[in-house]
């Protein structure tokens, strides 16, 4: 090729050289892009999933009938396609199906671990009980790394059946510290941050995952924005994607239950707070961790239109049928 260009008049040769340069940089760019790390949402429901056990009310009726309407419990996977590494934020009662989803997005490396790490946010049932699948009765995993805050780590080590996973070295629990960044690999890192929540068994954290192109915040559970010393708006400003607690849409969602016992920022309250933000800030927000009673679970609801009109979004459970659609580039 060089000799062909050498025989052409100088100007044509330069143009061709430039064309080849463009072509090669473009393909290099494309292959780089294809291998960028990404996040996928493996579940968008509150701890009880959707539909929820025992619910025969209108909220869950369609999801009982139509399996495609079901949503797994809130969970995010981080994938580095270059190295084949895979991490999970939260380990839910739907672990079986979510691991299957993740395998479809990025298969386990033949000689690699089941997962490269699991990061439970706290010890409420939707966020760690999937660990039971790693035990003797099911996967019989070996030394799966679980990264936990100090109380969460102590809780796992000192209560059965989790303590057996530790004793049999099926999980290897590493300690995290709030505000301290841990490297996942040379391109990705993760930082936990403490938030106020009903901390019966453990502290509660959210996570910020930082990739070469973007930052993602995952915060599925918090009591109320006002109870946190950090302004939620500053968290949104700090990241490119903010997956935030959207448990309840508004205050009259659970008739007969005292909602002050299970405080969360209502989506309506969040939208009210975010209304003064620039549209680029509002676009970062994706609500996740939706209770079965939340009307946002229904495609044609007024609630969905309200969120859309407010310039925010709903987190979308990844679907192997449209694999590129719900990928969040990191
Ligand atoms: Zn939860
Ligand atoms: Zn229901
Ligand atoms: Zn919780």
Provide an overview of this structure.
By secondary structure, the protein is of the alpha/beta class. The chain has one domain: Ribonuclease Z/Hydroxyacylglutathione hydrolase-like (Metallo-beta-lactamase, Chain A, 4-Layer Sandwich). It contains eleven helices and 14 strands. The strands form three sheets. It has a seven-stranded mixed β-sheet, with helices on one face. A hairpin with a 4-residue loop joins strand 9 and strand 10. The longest helix is centred in the first third of the chain and has 25 residues. The N terminus is likely disordered. The structure holds zinc ion (ZN) (3 copies). One zinc ion binds next to helix 5.
Shape: globular
Number of E strands: 14
Please estimate the helix content: 25-40%
User: Count of helical segments?
Assistant: 11
Secondary-structure-based class equals alpha/beta
Order of helices and strands: HHEHEEHEHEHHEEEEEHEHHEHEE
Report the biggest beta sheet as strand number plus sense, adding barrel if it closes: 7 strands, mixed
CATH topology: Metallo-beta-lactamase, Chain A
Low-confidence stretches: 1-8, 29-33
Total number of distinct structural domains: 1
């Amino acid at each position: 090729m060089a000799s062909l260009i050498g025989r052409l008049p100088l100007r044509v040769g330069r143009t061709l050289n430039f064309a080849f340069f463009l072509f090669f940089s473009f393909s290099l760019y494309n292959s780089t892009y294809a291998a960028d790390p990404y996040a996928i949402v493996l579940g968008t429901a509150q701890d009880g999933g959707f539909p929820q056990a025992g619910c025969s009310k209108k909220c869950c009726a369609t999801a009982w009938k139509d399996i495609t309407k079901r949503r797994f419990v809130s969970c995010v996977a981080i994938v580095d396609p270059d190295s084949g590494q895979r991490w999970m934020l939260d380990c839910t009662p739907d672990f079986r199906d979510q691991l299957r989803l993740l395998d479809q997005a990025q298969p386990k490396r033949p000689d690699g671990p089941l997962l490269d790490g699991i990061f439970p946010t706290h010890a409420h049932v939707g966020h760690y009980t999937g660990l039971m699948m790693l035990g003797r009765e099911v996967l019989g995993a070996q030394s799966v790394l679980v990264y936990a805050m100090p109380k969460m780590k102590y809780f796992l080590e000192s209560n059965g059946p989790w303590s057996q996973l530790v004793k049999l070295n099926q999980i290897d629990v590493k300690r995290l510290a709030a505000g301290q960044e841990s490297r996942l690999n040379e391109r990705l890192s993760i930082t936990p941050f403490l938030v106020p929540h009903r901390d019966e068994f453990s502290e509660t954290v959210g996570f910020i995952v930082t990739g070469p192109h973007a930052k993602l915040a995952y915060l599925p559970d918090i009591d109320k924005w006002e109870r946190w010393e950090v302004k939620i708006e500053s968290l949104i400003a700090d990241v490119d994607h903010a997956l935030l607690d959207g448990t309840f849409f508004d205050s009259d969602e659970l008739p007969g239950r005292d909602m002050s016992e299970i405080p969360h920022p209502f989506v309506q309250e969040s939208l009210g707070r975010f209304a003064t933000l620039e549209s680029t800030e509002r676009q970062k927000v994706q609500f996740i961790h939706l209770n079965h009673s939340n009307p946002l679970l229904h495609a044609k609801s007024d609630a969905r239109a309200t969120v859309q009109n407010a310039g925010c979004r709903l987190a979308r459970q990844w679907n192997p049928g449209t694999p590129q659609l719900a990928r969040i580039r990191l």
